[in-house]
Amino acid sequence: MRQRRLRHSGPAGSRTASDPLPPVARRRRSCGGGFRSRSIGSILSGVRAQILDRPRQPLTLREIEEPRCGDGQVRVSVRACAVCRTDLHVLDGELTEPRLPLVLGHQIVGTVLERGAGVTSLTVGERVGVPWLGWTDGTCAFCRSGRENLCVAARFTGYTVDGGYAEQTVADARFCFPLPPGLDDVQQAPLLCAGLIGYRALRLAGQGQRIGFYGFGSSAHLLAQVVVAQGRELYAFTRDGDTRGQAFARERGAVWAGSSDVKPPVPLDAAIVFASVGELVVRALEALAPGGTVVCAGIHMSDIPSFPYEKLWGERSIRSVANLTRDDGREFLPVAARLGIRPDVTVFPLERANEAVQALREGRFTGSAVLTMER
Domain 195-320 maps to which CATH number in 1.20.1050.40, 3.20.20.150, 3.30.565.10, 3.40.50.720? Predict the structure, then answer.
């Protein structure tokens, strides 16, 4: 595991306050109406946060009031928050229903500072992870059938409730994961979405021996370690000319790595498309053996081009992954600890969040980017 740190200190920007309502009680806020000015006496108790006011605009570093802990919630001191491509989709307006103004970030590692009424599952001082799935109603047909990831009323961390690009956050205690020892905060953070979603995608891909990964970023480099530990063959596909990414994939155990416009040397039993490029779904389908499955692991993707039925024929299939369940976390996190899964991370301080998301957009690092809250 390689870890790179980028540091900078700078002014915190304007001081404002965020809506303190808990997720269950919150209603969607219109842009520009969610923050209150703060009194001079409250400044010393404030926390720094990167705020998204409008899509397609840079984040703004501000000092806000400490978030208030509602019933069933915990207030968390954020230690690290990994940057996800989903954050880019929110920033770019490709995910169209954010609650604005918004604190992004849904791969949060921190410690419990305060418990709201009714919380007994977590203790003050305990280290926890806060993932993408932030709340479900528990009563719909999906929730009652073990598919809470499809709950139509679900709330999502860093999208419809505030997330972890801040020194503190609040979360529903039922959706937080107690974290095992063994990984430090920076290493643990990428497991909470890149790891979880990748693991769910891998499970849906089936038990085939030859697995292809289209795109080799944060999620793929973590799941590569699982595939190798299971004794399966990994074939990695990157953008044309990305020799650094291909070398990185081979370092992570890929038996073959090449451009996504090239067919692998053998037919694949399954392929996972991590990149948000619809054209890759067709290319992955063309690389499949009969009976194989293409799993689309992203939350957003460009349009998939039309293709002749003969490419799908032979009992090939295409399916998507939507969100995650708490059971995914309960299963994957112990597996990751047992297998010694380690991310390759580049660390940015909170004040350089805009640089971190731009570096992700441009592919300037391998592995995962993680924000830390150190001043």
Answer: 3.40.50.720
